[in-house]
Fold each of these.
Amino acid sequence: MPLEKSDVLEALKKVEDPELHKSLVELGMIKDLEINGDAVRVTVALTFAGCPLKSKIRQDVEEALRSIQGVGHVEVVMTSMTSEERARLFGQAPTEMEGIKEVKKIVAIASGKGGVGKSTVSVNLAVALAKIGASTGILDADFHGPDIPVMLGIEERPIGSKGMLLPLEKYGIKVMSTATLAGEGVPIVWRGPLVNKAIKEFLGKVKWGKLDFLVIDLPPGTGDAVITITKSIPLDGVIVVTTPQKVAISDVRRAMGLFKGQGIPIWGIVENMSYLKLPGDDKGKMDIFGSGGGEKLAKAFKVDLLAQIPLDPQIRIGGDNGRPVAIERNEVSEPFYEMAEKIKEKFI
Ligand SMILES: Nc1ncnc2c1ncn2[C@@H]1O[C@H](COP(=O)(O)OP(=O)(O)OP(=O)(O)O)[C@@H](O)[C@H]1O
Ligand SMILES: [Mg+2]
């Protein structure tokens, strides 16, 4: 009896994505299926290129195909989904929003818990990216504690033009924040539907123009606000900031699990407040919050450790004064520049 496509699909229905726990057929990951005599050729689209489970998935598919009676030669071709396909699968926002039409990559800066330096990393990364020649914008999506305008020393409000808002510009980057819209000290209660609406406006009605990167500073943690935001934005990736402490690490594991479950590629981890440089000694370091956490986490999730940033009073002062250290490239800002270079090289 000749092999039928339906037999092959039936066998493939039993293969699940190890993380999403649904069959590859149901997830739309089987792109192509060819039968030629007793030879079967299947094309599998991973949710994103570089998915660490690639070899496991390939192996499972090969096994399933070999288990079908009458199958001789088996070939499995691995490819990856387009961003539209991924968006459809994970129920993410479509990419056609007017304001971000010319933005190449949207990356969110996230953390498992608050106060680990998310906004500091967002601001300095954005400035460093711009300084090395990548056009960059920053969106402050931390509705409850928007710190970006202070960290960049911005007081003016954005102006409108033909139904669109123009982002502000500082240190070579474009900037938008809920704080600049509402004015300082104005309390706003942001609930799910409002957050969703605000995000749509920030991406749809803000004229970001041509950008290589749009960096988004997320609220801390993995609560409703973060979930709403990450679902309303067509993200190309997320960078997770942590400190080396154990608790920060376990929180961040939860965050990474959340993003992976939403199909958002994790670009890497930043370990902030990594160590303290001891004065008067070139090589002296003090591991205040423990050591090795970021590295372990990066290994466990098979992602890059993008930077280890020391605890440095100049970094804090730069944030407080609205003059982030990355305005100049020097010893203190170097980790932000090295991170920016890695990202630019890999993603643009
Ligand atoms: N590497 C560093 N060295 C010194 N101070 C730092 C460093 N990173 C962050 N800080 C300081 O720590 C404080 C918290 O940082 P930041 O506001 O960036 O954290 P966050 O994760 O965005 O916090 P939140 O969860 O409140 O949004 C700030 O005062 C900041 O200047
Ligand atoms: Mg913050």
Amino acid sequence: MRALLRAPTSPAPAPEPAPVPVEEVAPRAFLSLDYSGEPTAGLIRIFITAFAPEPMLATLVLSARDQTLHKADIALAPQKQTRWLALHGHLLGDGVHEIRVELLDSEGGLLAQGVASIFARNRGALAQRVTESLTRQGAPIVIDQCGSELYDYADRQVTPWFDRDAEAAAAHIAALVQDGTIDSAEAAIFEHFVDHGFLVVEDLLGPDELEALNLAVEDAVAKGLEGYEWGSSQRLHNLHERYPAVRKLWLHPKVTRLLDLIFDAPARPCQSLTYVFGSQQDHHQDTIHLTPFPAGYMCGVWTALEDVQPSSGELVVYPGTHRLPRIYRQTVDLPPVVDGDWTSFGDKVVTRWKQMLDDLAVAPQVYQPKAGTVLIWHENLMHAGSVREDLTKSRKSIVCHYFAEGVVGYYDSSATPGAMHLDARG
Ligand SMILES: O=C(O)CCC(=O)C(=O)O
Ligand SMILES: [Fe+2]
């Protein structure tokens, strides 16, 4: 039997449609993102660069898990423009977050998009308390300008032990002695910090450490880093990035131990500033420049690299002034300082500081330490670099500033997020 082969019943394939010429649609806008994928505490910044071949208005949208976090109208132009947005890692929760960034046209059509994988690190009791305070305050998750108005500085639940009443501070120090964390000599220096706003430790550095630090400064001067000219009051920024000896000081265990005890949380370095001669800086509180929320969780550490000579433009501190009100931009209705124009800052902030000091009539203490001595100041302590009466005398010193991990660190004067190096200590 021959099998009957049947013809397939399906219809013959339709003829291919004639190709329609496809018009290449050129993208109308472009977007790129720059951010750190490293664990970050506090504010997490995303830099957004955008442009469009033709000038146009667009909407910038940030979202996470399809929830819109931020929306802003922006003007795009053929020139690339970079702006930043920062996220409160406290409000995102611990771990990695995919943040979608989109540019939309006026009809909501997608023009360009990108994703930033950021890593919020919120460790420890302080981070927890700060998260609760930000939540109570209703702080926004995303900000495009930093400032004290975002936070509840009156929230007593986040006040550090040294800024509480005298009995609470004394009890805190007594408990540290009791459990063997500090001895009575250290208790005395912490009491000094509480009462006067600074503490001093002599001979913290040994001769070898001092020699290595001085060699680093000499090298920086010889190379003319940052255009440094011998004899000037100019400061050199972040020499710890270049010189291992300075990095060692920046992370010095004897210093960070004291800071950890002050903060009751790990100290994280922010920056280092090296002075060869006196700074001649006006009296100021660091608060408005290196600003923690909650208040108190930032310290400056001043290390003498040589014996400080009279008339060299010594550091002066105003004991007890850490109890003065804190001055933020918001306090004096000051816009952010941009492009190095400090005129309004001088008019509003420096004037206010002077007024407060005059009213208090406190005598400045001129600081003439021996090489290797370290002074730690409270974030709000008034201090200055005095006038250099003898211009030939150097005053080699390094100042490092530290935030406590778990806080929000920012620079109120410029309204930008602050640096907090989380893992530098290892
Ligand atoms: O060293 C000085 O004269 C002042 C430095 C200072 O005020 C600072 O770094 O915060
Ligand atoms: Fe300062």
Amino acid sequence: MIDSRMAAVMNFVREGNRVADIGADHGYLAIELIKSGRASKVIATEKNIGPFEILGKNISDSGFENFIEVRLGDGLKILSAGEVDTICIAGMGGALIAKILDDAPEVVQAARQVIIQPMNVAKKIREWLTENNWTIVDEDLAESTGIIYEIICAEKNSPKKIFKRESSPLSKKFLTQRLEKLQRVLAEMSKSESARTSEKFSATLAEISAISCKLSAVS
Ligand SMILES: C[S@@+](CC[C@H](N)C(=O)[O-])C[C@H]1O[C@@H](n2cnc3c(N)ncnc32)[C@H](O)[C@@H]1O
């Protein structure tokens, strides 16, 4: 029922945890978390009424209403501190995810695990987690309908592991796609004098160089 992107999110959830799935939409992750026995309870939330109604119906059809609670509202603001151990936020832009985390500091602080699958600016999420005293303990890559997604898992007081993504068969493909994208961005910026002297230009060059090094190490 769930694709490899959602399976990668689910695989990071610690056994038996109480999970919040923020922006649950169809609710497939919540259902699979309970069906597989990985989570003991899920709070599945939606901000928008359309997806919320579908979510409610899918949870009711699954027969897991006793284990999955659905809530309508904005991000983590509709949770109380200590209600969940794991926070999952998948399928949203990095800036929105960072805002959702920023808007509910007590709920985030009381959790023990945060699993994020951003649709863009994954770097922003890594910075947010580090600045807020979370340790990124692992990362993974998952391919679904031709797109490679990044999944980031952070915990409190856990040692950093060797990243799953580094041994992932998708690693080289992901780096190659990212390098090609950055090279297109750099070529576009090179056309303008002001863009060539910008911070973004230097950052893009630095990332191209870092990715090229990584790629030559895996080739
Ligand atoms: C693209 S869907 C991703 C659904 C699912 N998490 C997944 O990964 O397949 C994003 C969902 O987040 C919901 N959403 C957007 N902003 C939200 C917020 N601040 N709080 C809760 N849900 C939100 C949207 O209504 C939408 O259903």
Amino acid sequence: MNEPSSSQSLFDLPNAPKFERFTALPKFDGVPALVLDVPESIPALGYGSHQFFRYYGKFPSLVGREIISAFSDADMGVLDNYSGSGTTQVEAQIAGRDSYGIDINPLAVLASNVKTAYQDARKLDAAFDLVCRSAAAIAPYEIQATPSDRLRKWFSEESLQGLGRIRAAIDELEPGDEQDFLTVCFLAIVRRCSNAHDGEVRPHVKLEKKPRPPATAFREKYLDMVDGLRELDTMRPKSIKSKTVIGDNRTPKAYAELLTEPVGLVVSHPPYLNSFNYFNAFSLEIMWSEGMTNVWQGWTLRDVTGLEQKAHPATNGRLVESYYRSISEASAQAFEVLRPGGTLALVVGDATIHGRLEAVHRNVWDSLKTSGWRPEAVWFRTTHYGIGKYAYAHRADYHGEAEKKDAIMFLRKP
Ligand SMILES: C[S@@+](CC[C@H](N)C(=O)[O-])C[C@H]1O[C@@H](n2cnc3c(N)ncnc32)[C@H](O)[C@@H]1O
């Protein structure tokens, strides 16, 4: 491991305040242990393309940055096999590393690819103008093609019409980077144009909510994404490859279609036990993406929900067993694609089940130690904005529960 200095990391952002990001702890099971402190606010962590798509349970950008800084090789790729919305890939790109991602959620995969694509700003603006003009011209009756019946619970007639027009106009674009960018922009505004509570992970109707008008939300989101893209272009070198695919990380197939050579670092950030299942959390966006081939790429909702590593409810013993088994299987696949001496960075958090602590990090560590990995280091992370503070106190409440830990565990392939 390249030792991070105590007051500064290799990747400190320009003008970042200097503070002790790392502090040493007594050894953990014989390996060096540090605390990684991430006191930045969510907006401060949302530089570049990180803020394109709100993804539940993502880790702070600086976590990806510090892992890459300490454990990636200059000349080898980085893979995230639970890649979610692509935080690792964006950070790898900023660090000049090729990156790869696998996730079972097609929305996340599209977002990851859009966040790391090099866009042509002029073409993007032209596509955006075209979508805005076509959306305004589409007659309401043509929106019947959208799955509006199921959506009526969540959207007012006005929101349904507005979103339906934008969606229909995006469908008319040529497939390619601009269509993908605008699809992410569209899916990113779905929740705020709905009656669903913005602060909760799983959608619940909030009667007093005032949904955002779709045309305004779409325009604002577009401008915001373009700003992020401009910022990212100042941070990343040109032509750094990044590719993310839809796949089940427990099987060799997804890796085989993605990688042609070993990687130097694999980041794995499984869903947190007892938190939520991803397809439930994104049910509104999934309804609106139905039939979009750039999102689904030949997969069906049934395929992907069947392959998802379920995290909730952990009161079901069989689910807990299969949760741990999934992590072992995905780690075994990571082992196969790493170069000898390469690192697995496993980001896991503890859970409470019926008020009892489930020390997920310790259980996973103990199991990997006996599966051929060489234990290297552990970082425990703090995040001041409340990582792990899920919407429901009974599921996971980090406040006042000192023993529950968020850990990043580093293991090497011998
Ligand atoms: C905690 S999130 C990762 C978030 C990511 N680090 C980020 O910053 O956006 C866990 C991810 O695991 C994915 N996942 C669940 N089961 C999977 C499987 N069998 N194969 C691949 N990904 C899976 C979920 O879709 C979810 O995106």
